[in-house]
Amino acid sequence: MLVREFMDKKLQTIIQKLEKELGATASEQRGEESLIVAAEKIVAACEQVQGQSFELLSAMTAVDYWPQASSPQGENPRFHVIYQFTSVSKNLSLTLHVPVPGINPSLPTVSHIYRNANWRERELWDMFGIKFEGHPDLRRILMPADWEGHPLRKDYPLGYEEPQFTFNFEEIDLRKPYAKG
Measured in Å, how far apart are the chain's first and last C-alpha atoms? Predict the structure, then answer.
């Protein structure tokens, strides 16, 4: 259980309740409090957080830990989906981390709790390939509909043009596609 003398007492109460009722694990880094919540409990966690006057889902993103988290069975969580909540009325913020496996990554949607999660979940689907079960309109939001792959995954191939310098000018110039005239 996380107890810090400098932590806001209201936030400490909320964190202790989430730890006790949902089995969340609390941590602190650089003065910011966060909780690790199991994927199957994220809906209940968001309902409780909203019930504690966290009116705003201020940010939602993901982190890809590949290749450190890669295993043939996909048992290790490759991704963490990060939910950042703000209580404007209490002047508090809280972050939830949800570990997600690399094979068939999915979470239940929270768009029915926080309406702006609709767009944020679509972005995570588009960029990371994390599926949100029960989402009302899970389709690409940033990339074209026919795009293959998910560009923010660390194993996504980089599509770049090699820089041309004086020492490799001729080698690169031979590979460039020029219009035939």
Answer: 72
